[in-house]
From TrEMBL:
Residues 78-87 have a biased composition (Polar residues). It comes from Linnemannia elongata AG-77. This is Rhodanese domain-containing protein. Residues 78-109 are annotated as: Disordered. Residues 276-370 form the Rhodanese domain. The lineage of its organism: Eukaryota, Fungi, Fungi incertae sedis, Mucoromycota, Mortierellomycotina. PANTHER family: TRNA URIDINE(34) HYDROXYLASE (PTHR43846:SF1), UPF0176 PROTEIN YCEA (PTHR43846). Signal peptide: none annotated. NCBIfam families: PRK00142.1-1.
Length: 505
């Protein structure tokens, strides 16, 4: 009882810094180490310190026995970096990788997998709460180095992870370990495997790859696919548990997901496709808003808004062509790995896909250009069979591969391929709008209600700025009813018109 009282030492923190308090708490705790019973009290939360200490510098710090053990055994989750709440320093905080001697996961010879339990693990229900708090709390206030010091990587692997509890553990480890590494981005885990796009500090890329190699043998087939442009593409770290990695609504038991299509490297892809005299069946597995700003020459581009629709379209296109060669591509490869396996399972003999997708092809072209320049030849000699931009699902909304502009402004119809979201946050419509229309319609989609709304908000903002100079720049958008709510991927008016006409006929 005495030890428990000691270990739950309460320290009023107001005049001291959090880090100082943390250190003094740790010193105090280690002096009572010998008298402490090494069993956690049932029902005690294990991670109280982290959430309390980060919610405010003036909160009370207190510990529980299980937390004490976590700290005392030189915790693997980096509690010190978890306590730095403000982006006060632009330098990377110190990083010590989790111990390589006890990997987070294991694969047994029979193919079964095991994911270790985090320290202080008290069941899946507890982890749900801890993960929710990690996602909500300090994970989003990490001290980032300047954006240009990041590289963006995407990677995926299909791997069955049957137990929900394992998914929660993976989520927990990613949230804590990657946060300590200062990685931001989006990671989806599901019972099917993993799919991720992240931005990692340049200096930590090797650490990051080592981390996967050491701790995640269950994700041994991952290939890290770097984006064309450097810089940070995300603001926060999100690790989510999903039902399906790519949603096509097809039951995994109806086909063999490991019956994968043939992978072509960007170079092989380029050579095969540019040497063919008659265009082969080449399917763009992306949505219309992705393929409209850039695509491979002669590609069939289904007019679809979701991957599910695209899979249906693909099955239609390929019907009766089981003996022909089918080529397919998408942004990073995951959609083709899945839909290619579906085709192969349905008796298609030759299905080929672009490894690493358009992103990898873009890098290949970029490298070719650099090589040409280094050899004193003009970079315009490099012929790309992909025209236009590669749409990306991050704040860049696309990176150019060639200078061709394939799309038009959705409002006025001039050539333009820059995506943006309607500035009325309640609308948020993804659209292509030229600089002139941006200015004319206040950055909105041009609909009357959106223009009205943004005008009203700007007026309101002006008043707030005037009356409360201290609040300037803050978005005071709360408490205003949106006129309409839709999150659509917009089609140019012409396409919509054609569709209506078709429907009439
Ligand atoms: Zn326009
Ligand atoms: Zn709008």
């Amino acid at each position: 009882m005495l030890a428990a009282t000691h270990s739950r030492a309460l320290i009023a923190s107001s005049p001291l810094s959090t880090r100082h308090l943390f250190n003094s708490l740790r010193t105090r705790l280690s002096t009572v180490a010998s008298s402490l019973p090494h069993q956690p009290i049932p029902g005690q939360p294990a991670f109280t310190l982290f959430s309390r200490a980060t919610s405010s510098n003036n909160s009370l710090l207190y510990s529980t026995p299980s937390l004490f053990r976590t700290l005392h055994s030189a915790s693997t989750i980096g509690p010190e970096s978890a306590l730095s709440t403000k982006p006060s320093s632009k330098r990377l905080p110190a990083y010590s990788p989790p111990s390589p001697s006890s990997p987070h996961s294991q694969v047994f010879p029979d193919g079964n997998i095991k994911v270790q339990s985090p320290l202080g693990f008290e069941g899946a229900d507890g982890l749900v709460k801890v993960n929710a708090r990690l996602l909500r709390d300090y994970i989003q206030r990490t001290p980032h180095p300047p954006s240009k010091d990041y590289v963006t990587l995407s990677y995926y692997q299909f791997r069955p992870i049957p137990h929900k509890e394992d998914l929660l553990k993976i989520q927990y480890f990613f949230l804590t370990d990657l946060r300590a590494m200062d990685v931001v981005g989006r990671i989806y885990v599901s019972s099917e495997g993993i799919n991720a796009q992240i931005s990692c500090p340049k200096d930590r890329v090797e650490d990051f790859k080592d981390y996967y190699a050491t701790h995640w043998p269950i994700f041994d087939k991952i290939r890290f696919n770097p984006a064309m442009s450097e810089g940070k593409a995300f603001k926060k770290l999100h690790v989510r548990i999903k039902g399906q990695l790519v949603a096509d609504g097809i039951d995994n038991s109806t086909f063999d997901i490991y019956n994968e299509p043939t992978y072509l490297t960007p170079e092989e892809w380029h050579k095969e496709l540019s040497s063919q005299t008659t265009p082969p069946i080449l399917i763009d597995m992306r949505n219309h808003y992705e393929s409209s700003i850039g695509h491979f020459e002669h590609a069939i581009r289904p007019d679809v808004t979701t991957f599910k629709e695209n899979v249906d379209a693909m099955l239609d296109i390929c019907k009766g062509k089981e003996d022909q060669e089918i080529y397919m591509y998408c942004t990073g490869g995951i959609r083709c790995t899945r839909s290619g396996a579906l085709l192969k399972s349905n008796g298609f003999k030759s299905v080929k896909m672009l490894r690493g997708g358009v992103t990898a092809y873009g890098r290949y072209i970029q490298d070719q250009r650099e090589q040409h320049v280094a050899e004193g030849r003009g970079e315009e000699e490099v012929k790309s069979i992909y025209k236009g931009k590669n749409f990306t699902f991050d704040k860049r909304l696309g990176e150019p591969i060639t200078d061709e502009v394939l799309a038009t402004c959705h409002i006025c119809g001039t050539a333009c391929d820059t995506y943006s979201n309607c500035s009325n946050m309640a609308c948020n419509l993804l659209m292509i709008s030229c600089p002139a229309c941006q200015q004319k319609h206040q950055g909105t989609c041009g609909s009357g209600s959106c223009v009205e709304m943004v005008k009203e908000l700007n007026e309101k903002q002006k008043k707030i700025d005037k009356n409360h100079p201290g609040l300037r720049g803050m978005k005071a958008r709360l408490g205003i009813q949106p006129f309409h709510e839709h999150r659509l991927r917009v089609r140019p008016l012409k396409v919509m018109e054609n569709r209506r006409n078709k429907a009439r006929i």
